[in-house]
Amino acid sequence: MRPILTVLTLLIALYAPVSTVSAKQPEEEASVLLYVNLWKKRLYLQTSTGEVLASFPIAPGAVDTPSPIGVYSVIQKAKNWGGGFGSRWLGINVEWGTYGIHGTNRPEQIGRYVSHGCFRMRNQDIEKIYPHVRIGTPVIIDGPIMGHERLTYRILVPGSRGSLVKLVQNRLKAAGYYGGKVHGRFDKQTEQAVFRFQKGEGLPVTGQIRFEDLVHLGIVE
Fold first, then answer.
1. Residue range 24-52, pLDDT digits in tens
2. Which sequence spans correspond to the domains of the chain?
3. Could you name the active-site residues (predicted)?
4. Euclidean distance between CA atoms 187 and 175, whole angstroms
5. pLDDT (tens digit per residue) in 184-200
């Protein structure tokens, strides 16, 4: 696991303005990672030492299908999927669904929140980063907790999926109410943990996660 200070230094460095470039190549001894900034709707290719190699605009998830937040890695690479996936596909290991970084046949939508949670890029842009990305390359996705700047929270119910469910599971686990996997799926085990949490904390026992529960968990204010 990358040291926390290294990650924080890396994220701070990435907020500096970066021009879109493609000619610069990473040093052979330096691995690369992908950093996605949802606020700026941009993807950065950079070395593990913090050197930014390129920056490209993206189209992340729409308000009803927000993008995941967190630290993941590339688990699939494919060329010429066709259709809406464009010329390249980089699949990432999001636990609750199929998400990836891919090209598009609608380049005019780049820079807008329009996808089903994936990260769309212009075909010529993803083709530039594709050769530098390997299976296992880290993908850091940073942005609003809900994956979209217009979302503040959602009511979570059995069957809900996403970054917020994963965060709730993590907080319930830390408090001793949840013993399952932190995988972002509101399954039966998570529901039982929510019941225990609400009873134990004197909250309305609904089996759902509402705003009051999120406040009590310290996730929102």
1. 444 444 589 999 999 999 999 999 888 99
2. 4-142, 163-216
3. 102, 118
4. 18
5. 999 999 999 999 999 99
d(CA 34, CA 58): 13
What's 4-142's CATH class?
A: mainly beta
Of residues 102, 116, 132, 216, which has the active-site annotation? 102
Q: What is the DSSP letter of 149?
A: T
Q: Which residues, 6 or more positions from 148, have their beta carbon under 8 angstroms from its beta carbon? A: 38, 60, 61, 62, 63, 66, 67, 113
Of 219, 199, 36, 40, the C-alpha closest to 129 is: 36
β strands within the chain, DSSP E: 32-37, 42-47, 52-57, 70-79, 88-92, 99-102, 119-120, 138-142
Whether 198 and 210 have beta carbons less than 8 Å apart is answered as no
- 10: enclosing H helix or E strand: helix 4-14
Q: Which of 118, 132, 148, 183 is catalytic?
A: 118
Is there a contact between 86 and 123 (Cβ–Cβ < 8 Å)? Answer: yes
Output helix, strand, coil percentages for the chain, rounded to the nearest 5.
Answer: 25, 25, 50
Q: In what order do the strands lie in the sheet with 42-47?
A: 52-57, 42-47, 32-37, 138-142, 70-79, 88-92, 99-102, 119-120
Cα 62 to chain centroid, rounded = 13
d(CA 184, CA 147): 13
Q: Which CATH class is domain 163-216?
A: mainly alpha
Catalytic residue status for 118: yes
**Quick check: 61 and 100 in contact, CB under 8 A?**
no
